[in-house]
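Deliverable D5.2: sample structural annotation.
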Amino acid sequence: MEIVRKRRVSDILLGFFLLSHPGPVFIHIIGVSIFTLLAARPRLVWSTVLLVIAAHTAMQISIAMINDYCDRRLDAAGKPEKPIPRGLVHPREALVALVAGLFMIVLMVLLLLPLPPLALLVSLLYLTLAQAYNLGLKSTPLSGIVFALAMPLIPLYAFVGVGRVLPFLLWLVPVGFLLGVALNLANALEDLEEDQAFGARTLAVILGVRGSFFACHLLILAGAALIALLMLLHLVPANPWIILPILVLTCISAGGMILFFGAKKPASTRKFHFYLAAFTCIVLAGGWLLGVII
């Protein structure tokens, strides 16, 4: 007979903490913080900076909470390490995660009210894309497109949040599109076999493990190449002393991912691969913005 271990309060708190996806949310916080500080310089208004970061953090937590609520049945079947299958959070308690996610959306809106209206508009557009992903698009080839459309909105949100709208921000769309699809593939690789087993038709499933790794690395390098081309053609003038080291670092990171990660490596390495890809994209995009505005 199976003995059900009684949960402690610490187990429940840990479960709800893990429902917030602390790792990915932390990466988003780092990204939006870098973009906001770049956008606000040289005259930092710390109250505005903190509001921009706090509102985006609340939105990311809401997306994470609602994601785990929507995926609770799939996670129970294929992801035993998740908080609900582990027994840290009971299935009926997952409704609390949904309520918490909705509360974080309300908090996001309240934090955005003192900021320019365009910041609220961009945030709501990002939120719509993310929740569409949660509610079904994540299991389709459109999952990559959702990521591609959402990623440029993060630096755009940071700039409009501090009231700084610059013409070059339009070029965030093609650069962000490339990096967004790359991040989607890196993120989906960790669960590719489970998604395939449950009939999901994500972009990563269609490309396969080898194709997803190849496309992810190629798209990151393509993003770097586009940034270099925009600088060389003077379409987006930038400081070469900043851009060139960033491009070199990106190529080194991409080379490391090609050498040390891939279809023949253990599946357990894919989570670290995602974090490396995410930080590479943040450094590339953040370095580009720094080189443009200085």
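Annotation notes: The chain has two domains: 9-160, 166-294. The chain has 13 helices and no strands.
The annotation will be released with the project's public dataset once the embargo ends.
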